[in-house]
Amino acid sequence: MSRPDLSLLFPAAEPASPPPEQPERRGPQRASGDVAELIAQLRASQAELEAQNQVLRYSQAAAESASERFEALFSSVPLSLMVVDEHDMVVQANSMAQRSFQPRETDRPLTALMPFVSDSHAPRVREAFDQARAMGTAEATEVVFHISEGRHITGDLHIARIESRSEQDAPLTQFLCAVIDQGPLLAERQALQRSAQELQERNVQLHTSERRLEAVINSALDAIICVDQHERITVFNPTAAMLFQCATSDALGSPLSRFLPEAQQVLAFAQLTTQAALGEMTALTASGRELAVEISVSFERHAEGETTTVFARDLTARKREEARRNALEGQLRESHKMQAVGTMAGGIAHDFNNILHAILGNVELAKADCPPGTPMYESLLEIDKAGRRARDLVRQILTFSRNEPPKRAAVTLAEVVHDTERLLRVTLPPEIELTVHVPPDLPPVLADATQVEQAVLNLCTNAVHAIGSRRGRIRVDAALIQPDQRMRESLGLSAGDYVAVRVHDNGPGMDAATQSRIFEPFFTTKPVGQGTGLGLAVVHGVMRTHGGGVDVHSAPGEGSRFTLYFPVASYTMVAALPEVPAPVAPASPPAVAPATDRLLHVMYVDDDQALVFLVQRLLRRRGYEVSGFTDPHQATDALQAHPERYDLLVTDYNMPGYSGLDLVRAARTIRSDLPVALASGYVTAEIEQAALAEGARALIHKPNDVEELCATVDRLAHGG
To answer: Secretion signal: which residues (predicted)?
Structure first.
């Protein structure tokens, strides 16, 4: 706005003439026309000048305040700071710089910087000033500054160009120099450099912090929900959108109780703490489906109010994994229990073997001494029948308890199942219908045909007993399948093809409590005297030794279905099987040593006196000379004293303190050509391999038939 010409209102007075008579003064309200407009312009100009003066006063105060802050910062920074002009003159230096470069009054005054710089470092310092002049900042590291005689400072020189205006508004270039003494601060040098870098990046970080926080929230694996003081959702990250099946745009502004019905319980902690872990809660999806989530909250108070951040973690996968782990732990406990029971059963069966061997052997001797047809002979036959049933029962126990793999070969399950069907139909009640459907083109499995037949027969017999006297159906079928991962993990199967044999009946079924115990030895739901409780235990043992598994599905009133999984035999597996030698028919030569008239001498060693007495009687009747020992140490001493006296050594494996393998090893040392046989009711693959490695000619399984025992002795004694 142009200033008005005041001469129009106030003309210059003439001092020589007397003042004219003053006109009557009028107030502003009387002004009119150009005068009124001129007065208005004057007033507007005055107001504008006052506003500009106020702005100038505020700017001056701000500048003075900034200058004071700069001076305070400049003087209080624990660094040697100097302002150097383009002519190397120190315009300003803080107290730290004065103390460092002029510690004594007699030292060189700090009026210029370059005189303090070592001659060898001066080019680098000048280059740094040139770089600061061009780039704005520069640095010269490990510069030596000579302070006085015998004293110097080794420090890093940091230079920053600063621009200012002179009184004539001409640009003035100066340099802010900082000297960091590397003597006492050498250990902190890297930390100070990082701090300087962090200070430089602070502004950038402040601008990007919000975007970074947003990226963190959006990429979090937990659902993050922020609500304001009115419990309205303000932040709903993608994980929350996926967890609660609700779009973010739809969730924003909704009350927290829409997804967390227990929201009041969550927000109640705001008055008590700044954060809390509330544990498991029930949440709702947008469709109303319940979810198990783990909740933790964080509370923040600020000027605008309060913000609550809710962190929700989906527990569905964890609960599924916990259920799976609990199931696997239950299976592991069941496996350990079965293993312990099997070990116990094996030990009991081993001791019972000796008793049965003595019973059956003495029955054979008594039958030989008693004429047939007499009541005593009939009683002996009944004793023999009961003993053989007990022997079969013990063999079932051992089948369950043994962990060694059976002697397997490529077996066609169709043939085994049909053989089992023929055995079943002989004793099958007329009220029960049996149907068998096994495709003939199923691939062979690597199995022991006898044990497979025993497992299928036990399952069918168990189904017959479950149906009882009612009308019912039993269906047996087989198929080639590949169990899924859940089934493999549940049954401990490896990946591959399996032939599944299913036995399904429409009996009364079983509840969960019964199913949890059906594979326990001696557990049965049958009345006393109608079952031993070993049928399913034997099935479990057979499948375990075959590398397969057995699965059970049953419910009260819905029948039961047992599925046996046999691994398919590959060509490599069949080719790796050892050849089974053809059985040799036992000969019955006279018990006389070749080319001599003396009887063959057999040493029999067993810790059971009854068995030693029995074998002595059996073999002496067949023309052998028998020396029996219950102490393996005495047997070793006798063999050591007369090694050529004996033609055959038969020893038990399980003897306290001195096993049969120890005796076999000692006998081979004393006389390497002596035939040796090892007898036991619990012969594992490891025992068999160890015995053959030590030189044993045969393994005798107890209890066996008298004829089988005598045939083995005959064969070995005559060099067979």
So the answer is: none
Assign 176 a pLDDT band (cuts: 50, 70, 90).
Answer: very high
* 689/521 Cα distance (integer angstroms): 29
Look-up of token digits 């401990």: 492
Residue 597, helix vs strand vs coil: coil
CB 261 within 8 A of CB 282: yes
Contacts of 20 (CB under 8 A, 6+ apart): none
pLDDT in tens, 201-252: 877 777 778 787 778 888 888 888 888 888 888 889 898 888 888 998 898 9
Q: State the Cα–Cα distance between residues 113 and 260, nearest whole angstrom.
A: 69
Tally of CA atoms within 13 A in the half-sphere of 273 that contains its CB: 9
Query: Which three-class secondary structure state does DSSP give residue 388?
Result: helix
Per residue in 500-555, pLDDT tens? 999 998 888 888 877 776 776 555 655 544 444 556 777 877 787 778 888 888 88
Long-range contacts of 229-238 (CB under 8 A, 24+ apart): 229/305, 229/306, 229/307, 231/255, 231/256, 231/257, 231/263, 231/267, 232/256, 234/307, 235/309
DSSP state of 601: E
Residues in a beta bridge with 81: 178
CB atoms within 10 A of CB 615: 25
The pLDDT of residue 128: 95
In angstroms, the CA 718 to CA 589 distance is 8
Whether 172 and 165 have beta carbons less than 8 Å apart is answered as yes
Q: Is 155 exposed, middle or buried (0-12, 13-18, 19+ CB in 10 A)?
A: buried
Q: What are phi and psi of 103, to 5 degrees?
A: -65, -25
pLDDT-derived band at 115, boundaries 50, 70, 90: very high
pLDDT value of residue 703: 58
CA geometry: angle at 198 spanning 194 and 203, to 5°? 165
Q: Where are the alpha helices (DSSP H) in 402-468?
A: 413-427, 449-467
What number of residues does the chain have? 720
Rounded Cα distance between 115 and 118, Å, is 8
Cα–Cα distance for residue pair 578/234, rounded to 1 Å: 74
Q: Range with the lowest mean pLDDT among 81-90, 537-546, 588-597? A: 588-597
As beta bridge partners, residue 561 has 504, 553
Angle between helices 316-369 and 706-717 (to 10 degrees): 80
| Model confidence pTM above 0.85 | no
Q: Rounded distance, CA 601 to CA 592, Å? A: 9
pLDDT of the residue at 592:
56
The 8-class DSSP code of residue 507 comes to S
Distance, CA of 56 to chain centre: 72
Q: Cα separations (Å) of 557 from 15, 76, 403, 433, 509?
A: 137, 91, 36, 18, 5
Q: What's the rounded Cα separation, in Å, for the pair 524 and 538?
A: 13
**Long-range contacts, stretch 588-595, CB < 8 angstroms, 24+ apart:** 588/711, 588/714, 589/714, 589/718, 590/623, 591/619, 591/622, 591/623, 591/624, 591/714, 591/717, 592/623, 593/647, 594/718
Task: Return the axis-axis angle of helices 535-545 and 449-467, rounded to nearest 10°.
Answer: 150
Q: How many CA atoms lie within 13 A of 398 on its CB side?
A: 20
Sign of CA dihedral 72, 75, 81, 83: positive
Contact 720, 437 (CB under 8 A): no
Which runs of E-coded beta strand occur in 580-624? 601-605
Alpha-carbon gap, residue 565 to 705, rounded angstroms: 34
